[in-house]
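agent> fetching stored inputs for the acetoacetyl-coenzyme A docking request
agent> found them:
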Amino acid sequence: MSHKFIRFEKEDKKVGVITLNRPEVLNALGGQLIEELGQVLKACEEDPKIHCMILMGSEKAFTAGADIKEMQAKIYSEAFLEDFITKGWEKVSACRKPIIAAVSGYALGGGCEIAMMCDMIIAGESAKFGQPEVTIGTLPGAGGTQRLPRSVGKSKAMDLCLTGRMMDAQEAERAGLISRVVPDAVLKKEALAIAQTIASYSLPVVMMIKESINRAFETPLSEGLKFERRLFHASFSLEDQKEGMAAFLEKRTPKFKGK
Ligand code: CAA
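agent> prediction call returned; pasting tokens
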């Protein structure tokens, strides 16, 4: 499959690396790029040899957000009727296999929102996160006002969305938006190491963990705990649970089959 704005590499060890590649506009998320991203994610979901994906951009920009040129003249009825930034974008949050966002440079507006749709964000020291929509006469539209406060709390989410300022990788890590900061030069290597670790485990177990953590954001604690308990019980139906625990007891490395 070849794409105009996306590069895809299937790394060894069950990892797919998706690179946004529209450098002339800092990987602005136009309709075609989003369409291609959805196609690549669908292919990864359907490929049993891929267990985990990495989403990255360039050194200068993960992505500078939705394509302002495409949006500028759009009128309300068009945005409403096409349900603008819904269908394609939600392919990221709907993905059932884990996605690691590896961010260097700008992750602004829709770029910060796409990163937050992924399952974890690791960042190079150059990363800058922000929701600058207020500076161009609009507001975050792909989850910024909803996912950001869940990550960083109300005060910092208000600060970022109302002032449009950027925060650097250190601040983003302190605030809980990202899980790790690493030197830019090793960002891809670190992301690959994390992805390969995840991919070495039982795929159904990994997918159950993802689903269960995401459920925490959708339900009261009592329901979330019940959901987790049911999946925990369900894991006892897997050969991988028998193998994983037997391997521990026999002091050897488990051989997971994804069953
Ligand atoms: N959409 C379209 N084009 C963009 C873009 C975007 N989001 N961001 C940058 N570009 C283009 C610029 O227009 C410029 O193109 P030309 O060379 O043709 O002029 C090119 O990319 C390089 O950008 P700059 O010259 O501006 O680069 P810089 O280094 O001086 O500044 C920046 C970098 C601070 C990221 C600046 O480009 C910027 O502020 N970009 C816009 C960020 C933004 O507002 N994002 C939110 C978009 S709205 C949104 O995302 C809504 C949502 O919730 C989904």
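agent> quick read of the result: The mean pLDDT is 97.
agent> awaiting further instructions
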